[in-house]
Amino acid sequence: MELAWAAVGWALGIALNAVALELPRVHRLGTWPRCAVCTRRLPLGALTTLPLGGCCSTCGWRPMSPLRSLEGPAALVFGTLAWRYGGGPLLVAYSLYAAVLLLVLAIDLQHRWVYAVVCYPAVLLAVLLSGVVHGSPWAGLAGALLGFAVFSIVYWAGRLVYRGVEPMGSGDITIATLIGAMVGPQRALAALVLGSVLMGAVALALLATRRASRHTFVPFGAGLCLGALVALYLPEGS
Asked: Which bin fits 213, alpha (ψ -120 to 50), beta or left (φ > 0)?
């Protein structure tokens, strides 16, 4: 079961690669990825890091690398979720959540942008699946409101402290709302705190190695997504 579901994750990871490549270029969903050099349509093989993976048939540009590809992470998360929860609707729901989180993480990390066209439908889906995932039709909505409220307070408090300068992107509020809807109110704070700690550790490491200054942008949303992925494995009451 675990290996079969990991294979599903790997295949879905190729589709996520396509979205992560093209969405920041055209700012809309539903278009086939094009080469960043010559703008020709990329062949399917160029979207994978498998040994048969290829490049742009016109100019030879290779869009995928092991560090950028979402195939491996998706396969790992899908496989471990199958090990954690077995089969059934809960596994499908959490796997969909994980796919969205990986996509948001990758785009925020590479392009420092959070797309409403991805997050808002995912929030609605998580609210609609709340009865299946949390056993309550209102848990997803409560979690979304909690995530929105907490990070709205953090955002505006930071602007007051830094005198109008944004301490984080407003898109991080959207990510916090998404995470709350996915994991529910009982795990939302744990996910948000864990994600904040992860990115805080990265920022401190960059400062310590002098690869960043106090004003260097840190992709905070990527850390929040990592925290949410960990929270998917926690018991509901955590």
From this structure: beta
Asked whether residue 162 carries a pLDDT value surpassing 80, the answer given is no
pLDDT in tens, 117-151: 999 999 999 999 999 898 888 999 999 999 999 88
Model pTM score: 0.89
Where exactly are the structural domains of the chain? 1-87, 115-238
Phi first, then psi, for residue 34 (nearest 5°) are: -120, 160
What is the pLDDT at residue 52?
Answer: 58
